[in-house]
Give the backbone structure.
Amino acid sequence: MDRLLIGWIAAAVVFAVIEAATAQILTLWFCIGSIGAILANVCGASVTVQVIVFVAVSVLTLVIARPYLRRFTRTKVQPTNLDMCVGQPALVTETIDNLAETGQAKIRGNLWTARSADGSVIEQGKTVTVVRIEGVKLIVSPAKE
């Protein structure tokens, strides 16, 4: 058995082990490309042809199979009641100052820790718009008047 064949077999095994360990459909394409190179080696192809087969099969399987596999592996994002807060107005109940790490805002009757999206200080009593939610913090910007 020649060294190049052993190298392609080792590459296929390594890519398969990485794929099994990560389960991210990350190296599957290279494992299949290695198998193509193994077949090219067994058929007596030159090193250049084996490398071309490896690259071509890897790219083709990536381009053809990935969109179909993504449908089955994509996790669905389930919107929650919190998502309805984004874009809504909130009342600043404690001055928001990102540098001092202070600030609270009230939205829908709930008091939240709040931070300014652009880093500006927002005074107590002002109305803000919720830009996004990061963990347990509202990221807000001053409301357009």
Summary: The beta strands are 89-97, 102-107, 110-116, 127-134, 137-142. Helices lie at 3-22, 28-42, 47-73. The longest strand covers residues 89-97. The mean pLDDT is 88.
